Amino acid sequence: MAEAGSGRGEASDEPREFLFYHLKNSSTENVLSTLLEKTIERGWKADVAAADAGRLAALDVFLWTYRDDGFLPHGVAGGAHDGMQPVLLTCEEGQSNGGAVLFLIDGVTYEDYSPYSRVVYLFQDRDGPGVEAARALWRSLAETDWAVSYWAQEASGGFAKKA
Fold first, then answer.
1. pLDDT tens digits, one per residue of 27-45
2. What is the largest distance, in Å, between two alpha-carbon atoms of the chain?
3. Distance CA 80, CA 78 (A)
4. pTM for the structure as a whole
């Protein structure tokens, strides 16, 4: 993965990773905020791709208010300082802060993941079509150079690597 401040990390010797997170008992927002905090702690920048502008607006409010003792710094794509945001919320492929990590929620997929060195796809267990879409995406990555892994949420709320 890229070092802090090195943009997308294309010069990294580490393999490109595509991680699937199967959420069973937590909201997408709660898991996403935890993963985004870890991403920022590592000095990485991230894009978050959601289904539409309404979803982005709700996620924007959530990330400013989900903790009483702080917030997660971020911006919504289309602003004057998109490239400076540690986390950029977007609903269009190609809008980016230059980060190495892409989070996909709400069943969103991209045509081209090559600008990123890590992609994290979050999907809900209770969303039957979403589970099927995740399986189809998994199969489509079989013949690529992505290191693909599957993480399932356990009853405790944590995640265990299953594949």
1. 999 999 999 999 999 999 9
2. 44
3. 7
4. 0.89
